UniProtKB/TrEMBL annotation:
Protein name: 1-acyl-sn-glycerol-3-phosphate acyltransferases
Keyword Ion transport in annotation: no
UniProtKB keywords: Acyltransferase, Membrane, Transferase, Transmembrane, Transmembrane helix
InterPro entries recorded: Plipid/glycerol_acylTrfase
Species of provenance: Actinokineospora iranica
Top-level taxon: Bacteria
Length: 246
């Protein structure tokens, strides 16, 4: 067994806070061996519940890595939780401001120094009525293309059955199964070295999210939708804008 990556006081504090939260569900992990034991990795995940970060943090930590989450900057101002998030290496995402670029810069630096970065490209809990991944932001493609690191898609389902962030319904009992599945690293060699255009970023982003959607369909044992749900707010946003993801 490999050695655990050192995390320090705040990672320990996160573990104390997050492990009990995962006991709300019956955890099932598949493909955990695909997470590299050392070195940089970009873990790309879908987002269905406010319980996802604790669940995903514990998953990565149980595999002896320290997860560095990209998260909305407002979360860093939440009492106690914000301290834990910042202290454990979280990367704040600033949207709609001159600081937006710094979010990706910090994530690039984390990958270049051998860290495990976790990103939810949708930027928030999916607004798809049936819980499928919605149209994602393209910051994940920039990270994937500008860093020659393993880019691993992961799908998770079941946290939404415990805590639905949009209906505000909390159903801890009976305990629900929470399934997390890791896929193989996505081969992006055909895209590397090309001029980074909005079209290329969108293509790579959709490629990654399509793989996550495929794995999610296997977990749910349902046919996957043909496309990605696009919220009205994003439909009206400027086409081709440079987006970052939390």
């Amino acid at each position: 067994m490999g050695k655990r990556e050192k995390g320090g006081f705040w990672v320990g504090a996160a573990a104390v806070a997050f492990y009990p939260m995962t006991w709300l569900g019956k955890r099932t992990y598949r493909g955990a061996e695909k997470l590299p034991a050392t070195g940089p990795v970009l873990l790309v995940m879908n987002h269905v519940s406010h319980l996802d970060p604790p669940n995903d943090a514990v998953f990565v930590h149980r595999n002896k890595r320290v997860p560095r989450f990209m998260a909305k900057d407002s979360l860093f101002r939440v009492p106690v939780f914000g301290k834990i998030l910042a202290g454990s290496g979280g990367i704040p995402v600033y949207r709609g401001s001159s600081e937006a670029r710094h979010s990706l810069s910090a994530a690039h630096e984390a990958l270049r120094t051998g860290k495990a970065v976790v990103i939810y490209p949708e930027g928030t809990i999916t607004k798809d009525p049936d819980g499928w991944p919605m149209r994602a932001r393209t910051g994940v493609a920039r990270l994937a293309l500008e860093n020659d690191v393993p880019v691993i898609p992961a799908a998770r389902w079941g946290t939404n059955h415990i805590w639905d962030g949009y209906t505000k319904k909390f159903h801890p009992l009976p305990r629900k199964e929470v399934v997390t599945v890791l896929g193989d690293p996505v081969d992006l060699s055909a895209y590397r070295g090309q001029p980074v255009t909005n079209k290329l970023l969108r293509e790579v982003t959709d490629l990654l999210m399509a793989e996550i959607r495929r794995m999610l369909a296997e977990i749910r044992q349902e046919p996957e939708p043909a496309g990605f749900y696009v919220p009205l707010a994003r439909q009206s946003a400027k086409r081709g804008s440079d987006e970052v993801a939390s």
